[in-house]
Amino acid sequence: MSDPIYPLETWQQNTLDNSIPANTNWLREEAVNRRVLSKTTTAQPGSPSDGDVYIIPAAATGSQWSTFSQNDIAIYRGGTWYAYAPVSGLIVNLAGTLQEYTSGGGWQAPSGLAIPRNSVTALSISTGVVDIDCSLGDYFTLSLTANVTSITFSNLPGSGKGASLAIRIRQDGTGARTVALPSSFKVITGSDTSVQSAANAYTVLMITTFDNGTRWEYSMKAGAA
Questions:
Q1: Do the domain assignments include residue 103?
Q2: Which strands form 91-94's sheet, in the order they lie side by side?
Q3: CA separation, residue 107 to residues 94, 110, 168, 222 (Å)
Q4: Most buried residue among 13, 48, 89, 186 by CB atoms closer than 10 A?
Q5: What whole-number distance in Å separates Cα of residue 99 and Cα of residue 90?
Q6: How buried is residue 75: exposed, middle or buried, by Cβ count under 10 Å (0-12/13-18/19+)?
Q7: Contact by Cβ (8 Å): 91, 99
């Protein structure tokens, strides 16, 4: 269960101790104004630091996170996680970008606001799937510690807007990891069609779309060691 993040609690008339509303109000404001570390982490962190803030995704796990609702803002303070339900129009700082909670019930990049494009975001592989959150910038790195069987995208810019992304892929010390490209990927003439297989080898993948990801054109080449 989570409490609404707004409105803030008020100091009741004719009471002498306002510590409870003051403390909870401070947590609410801290949760909104601190940098949100992730909105895709599903497992409750084992060793969080005071002030860590996350957006709870679907199917969250952990003794406390599993009791929270999807899209809640969770802040860790004094050994306990506190969760607050967002409201439409609420904007938070997620890993150097902005995210707005919409009336439709989700977090996405605010329309009309510029998104910093100079950050480098490390992608992860979860049971073979790599999700690329386009709201986090346009340059990504991927360490191949397992085969990639699927690539998905979230927070694409929308119909009628273009997107171009770069992904620097590196094999781990084992090598021979494979990456299955989606059927929507169409190769640009002269490009490689598979990642380099040697241990620790680099491959640079450039992709671009103009129709919200229905079709991607890609170019892929070996990178220097």
A1: no
A2: 3-4, 80-85, 73-77, 53-55, 35-36, 91-94, 97-101, 107-108
A3: 10, 9, 27, 35
A4: 48
A5: 8
A6: buried
A7: yes
Would residue 107 count as lying in a domain?
no
Confidence of residue 115 (pLDDT cuts 50, 70, 90): low
One domain for residues 7 and 85: yes
Whole domain around residue 170: which residue ranges?
117-223
pTM: 0.54
Range of lowest pLDDT (130-139, 141-150, 190-199): 130-139
- Structural domains in the chain (count): 2
User: Do you find a cis peptide bond into 21, omega within 30 degrees of 0?
Assistant: no
Place of tokens 């979230």: 154
